[in-house]
Amino acid sequence: MKISNQDTLETANKAKDNDILSNAMKYKGCYGAVEIIVKDRNGNVVHKYKDPNIVKVFAKEMLSHRLPSTQVWDPTGGSGSGAWVDTSLDLTEEFSARYILLGAAFDQSGAPIENDPRYYTLDTSSGTYLPIRLEPGAYYDGGLINGCPIAEPYRPLKRVESISFETTYQPAGIPLLQEDVRAMNNIVKFQTTIQLDEYNGIGTTDSDYFLLTEVALAGGKKFDSVDACECTPTELFLDGPGTPTGGTTEDIPLQCTASGSDTISIALSESAVDMVKVGDQIKIVGKSDARSEESISQVSPFYFVMSKAVGGRDITLDRTPVDSNNAPITGDIGIYRSSLRIFSHRILAVPVQKTRDFEIVVIWTLIMN
Fold first, then answer.
1. Is residue 208 part of a domain?
2. Residue 94 carries which DSSP code?
3. Residue 110: partners with Cβ closer than 8 Å, 6 or more residues away
4. Each residue's pLDDT tens digit, 335-367
5. Is 169 helix (H, G, I), strand (E, B) or coil?
6. Is position 240 within any domain?
7. Structurally, how many domains does the chain consist of?
8. Which of 48, 91, 194, 231 could form a cystine bridge with 235, CB 3.0-4.6 A?
9. DSSP string covering 277-317
10. Claim: this prediction has a pTM higher than 0.85
């Protein structure tokens, strides 16, 4: 979509801002928008677009892990008079929004795809292509539809570079006249900037720059550098028993045994028994599979850890692992721990063509109602 009149664009964006705030008042919980600002080499804004976005079910896991304290009260702790003791829960900063992930319309050879059917469908009544409707649950193994392969510095993992807050008045009213009205910083903005030479596709020529079609706000373990791993975000955030420094060196899963029930056991040969904690997401694979391999056919290889004692080897999952024929999985398996938590996911109504002449600012706005 092209908008030739800047005044019309500004008017449309202001109207959309009003719609976003209006909808935030209607919905209980969390509402927001993703904003795309395109600037030329001189810093002039040449395009601005904002898409309203309901924060879907992805956010609930992250928010629930940020709410608890790292300690609980033990009435018999200390000298018997009570004390604060550590929980066995995984409450790390992996559950904080830290990354802005990007997907694009391209095929296996890296060639761009116009009106990619993975993202857009033809509306026969209007003759235009509209974004497909994302379901509220996890999407494509909890990742993006077609995430850009990560290879720094040209296709980097985009970290959140700026966080800011805005206020609303709760309950609504006039602060100078009503004593029960106060400012609350319940609007948070996460921002990153895609530089001029970033996201230049599989190759390095001008024609290889990506057409960005989706964006997601996500949490996960902290990476300073991931080099040229040529992996998807889903693969990057899978951990084996080692501690990879760049996300590419540890491709050996934690060795386990499946019993045909909802409990699997870590092998006696493994020392990293506490790599997995209560509340984690794990991926079940073959005993020798790399992150990107799935030698065991499953409807979904991802499972939720319901119970895991500190120092223990038994892991109770949310369901019995089964293959694609619904037969319980038994015998030797491998598991990877996933630290990727997508807070929200959006298909852009207006795809953004990246070139070497423009930088793109991406801003997620979340309104906690």
1. yes
2. G
3. 201, 202, 203, 208
4. 999 988 888 888 888 888 888 889 999 999 988
5. strand
6. no
7. 2
8. 231
9. -BT-EEEEE-TT--TT---S--S--EEEEEE--TT--EEEE
10. no
